[in-house]
C-alpha cells in the first residue's frame, strides 16, 4: 500500500478556535478521516476552553516545562485528548495516554498537522509519533 501525505484543512470558528480535519492513508490501518476541535488557551473566548479535543497552551520556558504544563492541562481539562505546548525551540505535544514528543521548530501548519495527527492516533489507541 502506498502512503500519501496527510491533507490538513482548517476551519476557523472564532479567535483561537478552529476545526481541523486530517485525511490520508495509514500503511497499517488504511484510509483515515478525522476531525478535532482546537482551542488556543491564550486567545480563545473562555466559553470555548472546556470543549476542545486539542488544546494549545501559551508559550512555556523550555521543553521540560512544556511537558509539565501539558500534563497539567490534560488533568484540568478532562475533555481534551491532546495538548500542544509551545516553547522557544518548538512545540511539545502531550496526549492523555501519557505519550509526549517534540515537533521542533516548525511552521504553524506543521504544528497543527502534528496536533491533528497526535489526536487521531490517540483517539485510535495508537502511540503518537513525530514522523
Question: What is the compact description of this entry?
Answer:
The chain has about 130 residues and is an alpha/beta fold. The protein is built from two helices and seven strands, in the order ββββαβββα.
N→C terminal distance: 18 Å
Assembly category: single chain
What is the succession of H and E elements? Answer: EEEEHEEEH
Which percent bin holds the helix content?
Answer: 10-25%
- Low-confidence regions: none
* Spatial order of the strands forming the largest sheet: 1-2-3-4-5-6-7
Number of helices: 2
Radius of gyration: 14 Å
> Overall 3D geometry?
globular
Instruction: Report the major sheet.
Output: 7 strands, mixed
Question: Structural class, judged by helices and strands?
Answer: alpha/beta
- The count of strands amounts to 7
Strand proportion, as a percent range, falls in: 35-45%
Per-chain topology:
Elements: E1 7-14, E2 17-26, E3 30-40, E4 54-56, H1 63-76, E5 82-87, E6 90-95, E7 100-102, H2 108-123
Parallel strand pairs: 3-4, 4-5
Antiparallel strand pairs: 1-2, 2-3, 5-6, 6-7
Amino acid at each position: 500500500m502506498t502512503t500519501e501525505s496527510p491533507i490538513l484543512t482548517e476551519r476557523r470558528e472564532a479567535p483561537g478556535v478552529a476545526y481541523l480535519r486530517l485525511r490520508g492513508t495509514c500503511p497499517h490501518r488504511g484510509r483515515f478521516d478525522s476531525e478535532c476541535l482546537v482551542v488556543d488557551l491564550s486567545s480563545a473566548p473562555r466559553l470555548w476552553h472546556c470543549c476542545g479535543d486539542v488544546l494549545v497552551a501559551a508559550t512555556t520556558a523550555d521543553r521540560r516545562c512544556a511537558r509539565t504544563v501539558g500534563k497539567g492541562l490534560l488533568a484540568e481539562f478532562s475533555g481534551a485528548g491532546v495538548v500542544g505546548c509551545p516553547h522557544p525551540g518548538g512545540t511539545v505535544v502531550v496526549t492523555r495516554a501519557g505519550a509526549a514528543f517534540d515537533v521542533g521548530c516548525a511552521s504553524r501548519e506543521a504544528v497543527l498537522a502534528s496536533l491533528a495527527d497526535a489526536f487521531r492516533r490517540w483517539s485510535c489507541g495508537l502511540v503518537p509519533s513525530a514522523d
